[in-house]
Design a protein that fits this description.
heterodimer; A: 199 residues; 14% strand; B: 301 residues; two-stranded parallel ribbon; 9 helices
């Protein structure tokens, strides 16, 4: 009585396997990966003039100074800063410090409505003025990322606004390109001597 | 009767001797090739006809060969296309600054020859307002972005109507189910027809055995992608299929400091690549050739 049933079950299992296209990977299952927003160190620290062993500027946590003494009310222009922050470059339209920072608590931000905002919520702050960029960012088409395009297989980390843009001078700085042009005597590139010899 | 040697026997013997000599002569090149080429490799079937067992043996052999030639233990896999996935790539020319970080990441990820500084990506410095590729300069070496210029990175467009695939006389290059055009480096005869046929200069030829220090070799390798290519074969960008078929983003996208690159599954309506195609003004290079690229460019404004 049991035997035919067992055979049918076996057949069904083996048969099922054969219907699967062997060349394909299993289809993605329920999403398990998460998308996290990068929280750059600059949200909680500032650069000092010292460098670490790798030549990167050493960062000083805001709390190093601000836990020891009361923060002074924020000036309207960065030129008025007397200590530590005075080297700040500032090219961000006509904005004053207090356009984004809370005057009485400079380590926090505020929305245009005056509602306080933690420094880590900077994307929400930027989105108030930069709508098209925020729209593209939400769609995954603005700002870099690392990890998995397929969230069912792993996590992805998205860049924050301040990962790429200095909020005080937001235009991307540029720099010197890497991978300098190759030695013309090296082969492979069309038009060089070695590639012509082969043609 | 047994003592007599018939004419027939003599002729058979002579024929056999001649035949053996001719066969030995015909096979002579094999003895010379055996230094670099094992018999197994010589008799290897086309990629599409290989069974899983055969591929398994080839991968073991390739790993041993890499260890012998380059002194590095590597993992070479043969990841198949994912079902329901068709890859697409887009690049935002409004934010690309021409820093060539993508080229560098490609160079390292794909185990390119260090001496020639090869990369699958060429970044062209272009005159603003012009799309004349012939006047794009890939050899700039000054701070970027330069005044009056924009930057156009070009890599394999994984064309759906690929000229390179059509011209290959031995079918060593073809389009996979997820849209990636691949090369079987063990099947390629190095004729370079595909390199000549590509209107995007997206294929490269290995003039010499690639030189890579053992410690710089990327051990995460794919049979059809970034395993170290033999001398005398053509190679190309595969959208990093050893990464992307495992769900990861391409190396050039992760390296881009300005976030100019968007990658994803064209069949997924919720993917960023679909959003770009549906909401941005998108174009492809040399559209008039009918190559139907799956690499798209767009501007923000």
């Amino acid at each position: 009585m049991m035997r035919p049933a067992l055979a049918a079950l076996l057949l069904a299992v083996v048969g099922c396997g054969k219907d699967q296209p062997a060349r394909f990977q299993p289809p993605p299952g329920a999403p398990t990966g998460r998308e996290t927003l990068l929280q750059p160190a600059k949200l909680t620290s500032v650069e000092s003039d010292r460098k670490d062993a790798l030549g990167r500027p050493l960062r000083v946590s805001c709390e190093s100074c601000h836990s020891l003494r009361e923060t002074k009310p924020m000036p309207s222009r960065p030129e008025e800063l007397k200590e530590f922050h005075q080297g700040l470059q500032f090219r961000h339209g006509e904005l004053a410090c207090t356009s984004c920072h809370q005057a009485e608590a400079p380590r926090t931000l505020h929305l245009a409505t005056g509602e306080p905002l933690p420094m880590t919520e900077v994307v929400t702050l930027c989105a108030q003025c930069h709508g098209p960029q925020y729209r593209d960012f939400k769609a995954g088409a603005h700002g870099g990322m690392t990890g998995y395009w397929d969230l069912s297989r792993g996590d992805r980390t998205r860049n924050n606004c301040v990962s790429c843009h200095d909020p005080h001078t937001p235009k991307y700085a540029g720099g010197h390109p890497v991978m300098p042009p190759r030695d013309p005597s090296a082969h492979g590139e069309p038009g060089t001597k070695e590639s012509r010899d082969h043609e | 009767m047994s003592d007599t040697v018939s004419r027939r026997t003599v002729m058979k013997g002579a024929g056999a001797t001649l035949g053996a000599a001719a066969f030995a002569h015909a096979m002579a090149p094999l003895t010379e090739w055996s230094k670099d080429l094992s018999v197994g490799e010589f008799l290897q079937k086309h990629y599409k006809e290989l069974t899983r067992d055969e591929m398994g043996r080839i991968l073991v052999h390739l790993k041993e060969e890499t260890k012998r030639k380059y002194g590095r233990d590597v993992d070479i896999r043969d990841l198949p296309p994912q079902e329901g996935v068709s890859f697409g790539y887009a690049l935002n020319l409004s934010v690309c600054i021409g820093c060539r970080k993508c080229s560098e990441a490609c160079h390292q990820e794909n185990n390119h020859d260090r001496r020639t500084g090869n990369s699958y990506i060429r970044v062209l410095e272009m005159q603003q307002g012009s799309l004349d590729l012939e006047h794009g300069n890939a050899n700039y070496d000054h701070p970027v972005p330069a005044e009056g210029k924009y930057y156009l990175p070009v890599q394999c467009h994984q064309c759906d109507n690929a000229p390179c695939v059509k011209v290959c006389p031995v079918q060593a290059t073809w389009k996979e189910a997820d849209g990636v055009v691949v090369v079987d480096y063990n099947w390629c005869i190095g004729c370079r027809y595909c390199e000549a046929a590509c209107p995007y200069h997206a294929r490269r030829f290995n003039w010499a055995k690639p030189e890579i220090p053992a410690e710089e070799i990327n051990p995460d390798q794919g049979y059809l992608s970034n395993r170290i290519r033999p001398q005398g074969v053509v190679e190309k960008c595969t959208f990093c299929l050893h990464r992307t078929r495992a769900g990861r983003l391409p190396a050039c996208l992760e390296a881009c400091p300005t976030g100019a690159r968007v990658f994803g599954n064209l069949l997924d309506p919720k993917s960023p690549i679909r959003w770009v195609l549906e909401n941005k003004r998108v174009f492809v290079l040399k559209e008039e050739l009918g190559t139907r690229p799956r690499f798209f460019y767009f501007f923000d404004k």
